[in-house]
Amino acid sequence: MACVMDGNGRWAAQRSLPRTAGHRAAETTVIDVIEAARSAGVGWLSLFAFSTENWRRPDSEIAFLMCLVRRVIRKHAPLLHARGIRCRFLGMTDPRIPPELAGDIADLMTLTARNRQMTLTVAFDHGGRRDIVEAARSLIRSGVLAEAVTEETFAAHLPFSDTPDVDLVIRTSGEQRISNFMLWQVAYAEWVFPQVLWPDFRAPDFLQCLEAYRRRERRFGGVLPNQNGGTQA
Fold first, then answer.
1. Domains in the chain, ordered, with CATH?
2. Which of 7, 83, 111, 145 could in theory staple to 198 by disulfide, Cβ–Cβ 3.0 to 4.6 A?
3. Does the pLDDT of residue 194 top 70, yes or no?
4. What is the pTM of this model?
5. Catalytic positions (predicted)?
């Protein structure tokens, strides 16, 4: 499963607060959703926290986000480790990322590397197109012949290549965009777009989205057999 955590700025604007207040309020949601996913038996959870395009935001907002992420990591690392959650960060290539934050992220990944209860991937400084370009470069550097390139060999050169395809993406706030998020992995994902803004999103909302997914019939471009022995589109 994956979540595009959208609506922090609008949540703050509705309350006549600075955008940073929305980011701060989102911390509770992040922990609530992680706990809900783990309790529901979700083995892989990805959260879209900061995109390659988010660097275009005001410097003051970016600086706040960097400090906030560092504080959240330091505060919740013991809980995540105790829950058996392996933490990974997808992206993290831009030199503008503060070295102190990069160090805390590296420490968290090392601390939780052997955990297997759930894998939490935080997409931070992430861009789906960039990942695909980097995979293509890796194939070329490896000397793989064009005729030998398959979906499987290509996927093996993506970052965290052991990550399975995403089954369900939840994008809060009602917006309906992919936003350059894990483009390869979400190719056949189901999407749910709850209207609730991310800082107000809680475990019951998460479970409601999960139930909506369970009611869907996944066809992957094919057809399903009907009760009369034929197929239905």
1. 2-232 (3.40.1180.10)
2. 7
3. yes
4. 0.92
5. 6, 54 (proton acceptor)
